[in-house]
């Protein structure tokens, strides 16, 4: 695997604080950049969970929560076409579009071991928590006849302890992400189940 270390920890320009992209612009970028529909869905799921967390758990405004959504929905935007430069390309695109540095840095924080950027803000910590877990939970839903319907936290926990299930999902990374926040795993799983089930 290519070295994805970004070699820097500061992103964007502080004068762009508050600059955003509309929902339509972000989804357009997604359609242009991400031919893989399953990956697109993953990104929309992470976006939805991020936004819901910002609103429900952090008590943020719609405007602030939109930034959380934006970071989630764009975090893997360059993975399909530029796997060897994953994260760098979308970061540079958002910098050239003069997007809020907090959004850009959050994207840079979704894999500290790969990109070399440590999550500091709550938004940065939560994208790291949700990314792998959201993908894992979706994989678990896909093998159930009723998908998300009737799926509970316990069954997800059981699957996490089965190394052969969704083996590509790194359990160490999930644990590392969780060690940086106060919320227990069970609560996070419940929250993801509740908020990504309806994302199509
Ligand atoms: Fe992801």
Structure description:
The chain has a single domain (17-196), classed as Hypothetical protein af1432 (Orthogonal Bundle). It has ten helices and no strands. It has helices at 23-33, 37-56, 62-74, 88-96, 101-108, 112-115, 122-142, 153-160, 171-178, 185-196. Helix 3 packs parallel to helix 5 (101-108) and helix 7 crosses helix 10. It starts with 22 loop residues before the first helix and ends with a helix. The structure holds fe (ii) ion. Residues 42, 46, 75-76, 131 line the site of fe (ii) ion (FE2). Fe (ii) ion binds next to helix 2.
SSE topology:
Layout (H helix, E strand, L loop, with lengths): L22 H11 L3 H20 L5 H13 L13 H9 L4 H8 L3 H4 L6 H21 L10 H8 L10 H8 L6 H12 L4
Helix pairs in contact: 1-3, 2-3, 2-7, 2-10, 3-5, 4-5, 5-7, 7-9, 7-10, 8-10
The structure holds fe (ii) ion (FE2).
GO molecular function: hydrolase activity
Protein name: Hydrolase
Keywords: Hydrolase
Concise summary:
By secondary structure, the protein is mostly helical.
- Tally of domains: 1
- Classify the secondary structure makeup into a structural class: mainly alpha
Residue-averaged pLDDT: 97
Estimated share of beta-strand residues: under 5%
Order of helices and strands: HHHHHHHHHH
Distance between the termini: 31 Å
In terms of per-residue confidence, which ranges show pLDDT below 50 for 5 or more consecutive residues?
A: none
Bound molecules: fe (ii) ion
Q: What is the CATH top level name?
A: Mainly Alpha
The number of helical elements comes to 10
The overall strand count is: 0
**Which radius of gyration do the C-alpha atoms yield?**
16 Å
Percentage of residues in helical conformation: 55-70%
CATH architecture: Orthogonal Bundle
Q: Choose one word for the global shape.
A: globular
CATH topology value? Hypothetical protein af1432
């Amino acid at each position: 695997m290519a070295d994805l270390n970004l070699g820097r920890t500061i992103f964007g320009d502080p004068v762009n604080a508050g600059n955003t992209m509309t929902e339509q612009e972000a989804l357009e970028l997604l359609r242009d950049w991400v031919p893989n529909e399953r990956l697109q869905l993953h990104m929309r799921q992470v976006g939805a969970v991020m936004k819901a967390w910002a609103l429900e758990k952090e008590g943020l405004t719609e405007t602030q929560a939109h930034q959380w959504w934006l970071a989630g929905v764009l975090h893997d935007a360059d993975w399909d076409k530029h796997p060897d430069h994953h994260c760098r390309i979308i970061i540079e695109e958002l910098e050239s579009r003069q997007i809020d540095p907090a959004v850009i840095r959050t994207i840079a924080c979704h894999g500290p071991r790969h990109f070399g950027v440590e999550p500091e803000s709550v938004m940065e910590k939560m994208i790291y928590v949700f990314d792998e877990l959201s993908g894992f939970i979706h994989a678990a839903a896909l093998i159930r006849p009723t998908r998300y319907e009737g799926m509970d936290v316990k069954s997800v926990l059981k699957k996490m302890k089965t190394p052969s299930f969704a083996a590509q999902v790194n359990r160490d990374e999930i644990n590392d992400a969780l060690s940086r926040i106060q919320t227990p795993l069970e609560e996070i799983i419940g929250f993801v189940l509740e908020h990504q089930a309806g994302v199509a």
